[in-house]
Write a structure and sequence with these properties.
By secondary structure, the chain is α/β, with parallel strands linked by helices. The chain has three domains: about 230 residues, Metallo-dependent phosphatases (Purple Acid Phosphatase, chain A, domain 2, 4-Layer Sandwich); about 60 residues; about 50 residues, no CATH class. It is about 30% helix and about 25% strand. It has a six-stranded mixed sheet with strand order 6-3-2-1-15-16. A six-stranded mixed sheet has the order 7-8-9-12-14-13, with helices on one face. Helix 2 packs parallel to helix 3.
């Protein structure tokens, strides 16, 4: 019996951006729901951070989520097990007040996991672990020790896995507590990575620039054979164009419609051609264009910087080469929160 697993959908991101919700919908319309129907999936496991903001959900974002996700899941007879993540818990030290519980009570097919608990799905016992905080930490660790389940699924912050591309988490929990399990599946980190036992499954689509060219999607999991199958999302919203005197009449602009584009100027000998190129790019209905010219890395002798990297990734590299005794992971964590808040204000 197969179940579907999805995580970190972040409905309402970028201040409830219509651009991003339209982009998300391509995935749900053309990949997600057709796969559920084709495979006869009757159980979906949502491993956290379904909504983006833990402080409040925009009415429009909630309407979008209900119309395009929850109503459709109910319509095809799919039960949903939803784990509370750090973005859906209102308080940082408790999961009791959370967005999914408060907003989705009308759906009889949705079960909320705000406290660690064991469930039997199609004959297989699974331990579900929501976001671990000071209130539920002791109960969570006690249940981990007590359970005879071979599989656990949750929203975990563990060391040694990619938080996102180019950054390995080193300030989370140690993985040893999960040694007893055969398989561990988790949300929270948006990029896919695993050590053969613990699998971070990644979110369904790109949300930030550092997601570009990183494979996204969701997964099917066969409870009988324990085979995990990725279902990849072919759609992207971010694109990078490296400009080498591209003739403005010979470029295919159509594929960049509704995308956020970064043009990295590598060679420009004809200013007039470049301006016409940019004009045509704008006229193809791109969502946004960022132009990077004269990117000089000659002063960054100690680090290697790619022109396609986002600001935060570059800042992190400066922190990594610092030789002081400062807690670098703590600094990265603080910078990440500041960067995210600033990005949301754009």
């Amino acid at each position: 019996m197969k179940v579907a697993i999805i995580t970190d959908q972040h409905f309402g991101c970028h201040r409830n951006s219509k651009l991003f919700h339209d982009y998300f919908l391509e995935f749900y319309d053309n990949v997600f729901f057709p796969t559920l129907i084709k495979e006869g999936i009757t159980t979906l496991i949502d491993m956290g951070d379904t909504f983006d903001s833990r402080k409040g959900v925009d009415f429009s974002a909630l309407s979008w989520a209900k119309n395009n996700y929850y109503d459709r899941l109910a319509g095809i007879g799919c039960d949903v097990i939803t784990v509370v993540g750090n973005h859906t818990a209102y308080y940082k030290n408790s999961n009791k007040i959370n967005a999914v519980d408060l907003l989705l009570r009308e759906y009889k097919n949705v079960r909320i996991i705000s406290h660690p608990e064991e469930l039997v799905l199609h004959g297989e016992k699974i331990l579900f672990i929501p976001w671990i905080n000071s209130e539920n930490k002791e109960d969570t660790f006690n249940l981990i020790k007590k359970t005879d389940s071979q599989i656990t699924m949750g929203h975990l912050e563990l060391n040694g896995f990619q938080l996102y591309k180019r950054h390995i988490m080193e300030d989370g929990m140690e993985t040893g507590i999960f040694d007893k399990f055969k398989l561990v599946f988790s949300g929270h980190y948006h990029t896919r990575s695993n050590n053969g036992k613990i699998f971070y499954l990644g979110n369904p689509y790109e949300i930030y620039w550092n997601d570009v060219d990183d494979v996204r999607g969701f997964h099917l999991f066969d409870l009988k054979t324990q085979k995990l199958t990725p279902i990849n999302n072919p759609y992207s919203i971010y694109s990078i164009i490296k400009y080498f005197d591209i003739p403005h009449t010979e470029f295919d602009y159509d594929e960049y419609k509704n995308k956020i584009v970064k043009v990295i100027v590598k060679q420009k000998t004809d200013q007039n051609n470049f301006e016409k190129f940019i004009d045509k790019l704008y006229s193809s209905n791109v969502a946004d264009v960022k132009i990077i010219e004269n990117f000089d890395t000659s002063t960054l002798e100690d680090i290697e910087v790619s022109e396609s990297e986002d600001t935060f990734s570059i800042l992190q590299k400066f922190i990594d080469i610092d030789e002081s005794n400062l807690n670098k992971n703590k600094i990265v964590s603080i910078l990440k929160e500041i960067y995210k808040e600033a990005y949301e204000m754009i």
